[in-house]
Amino acid sequence: MPARISIIASRDLRAVMTAMRGLDRANRAQIRKQTKSVIVPAWREAVAREASTELERRVFVSSARAAVSDRNVTLRAGGGGRRLSGGLTPSQHNRAVEFGGNRERTTTYRSTSRRGKSYRMTRHTQRQLPPFRRSGYVFYPAVARIAPRVAALWAQTFARGIHEALEGKQ
């Protein structure tokens, strides 16, 4: 699940973007590197703080990543194609873990006993999920909590990078 911080609503972030275009390649790369080194641990901590069950930790916390470019910061969690020990693939089931499900939903299917008798089975297939919540349980609350901090860190790191470049430290 990716989330991007939009610069449309913030004048300060738009100013950072405009000024970033005027820098040379080495300074931009240094600013991206510094920004990523600060944002990634903060993002992982925010996701870990929101995850309350072992399933949420294994799906979201282990795969929390952040990417920083000249134009945006992308926060990701719940990706990864490697199956967990029970067979769940996080990239395919992250929405069910994030938003929950209808715990009363049943699925009916045919099965055959060892002796060959065919019968119908009805089971509750989403009981292991939390109840449905439109706002999510882990990813979206973590994004809402950390987005202002990430935007401030991005702008501060940019300002510090410009200051160091002007002083000739880089």
Ordered list of secondary-structure elements with their pairings:
Blueprint: E1 2-4, H1 11-21, H2 25-50, H3 54-61, E2 65-68, E3 73-76, H4 90-99, E4 106-112, E5 118-124, H5 139-167
Antiparallel strand pairs: 1-3, 2-3, 4-5
Helix pairs in contact: 1-5, 2-5, 3-4
Record keyword descriptors for this entry.
170 residues; 5 helices
Mind explaining what this structure looks like?
- The chain has 170 residues and is α+β, with helices and mostly antiparallel strands.
- It has two domains: 2-100 and 136-167, no CATH class; 101-131, no CATH class.
- 49% of the residues lie in helices and 15% in strands.
- It has five helices and five strands; from the N terminus they run E-H-H-H-E-E-H-E-E-H.
- It has helices at residues 11-21, 25-50, 54-61, 90-99, 139-167, and strands at 2-4, 65-68, 73-76, 106-112, 118-124.
- The protein has a three-stranded antiparallel β-sheet with strand order 1-3-2. A two-stranded antiparallel sheet has the order 4-5.
- Helix 1 packs across helix 5 (139-167), helix 2 runs antiparallel to helix 5 and helix 3 (54-61) packs across helix 4.
- The longest helix has 29 residues, at 139-167.
- The protein is elongated, with a radius of gyration of 22 Å.
- The protein starts with a strand and ends with a helix.
- The relative contact order is 0.19.
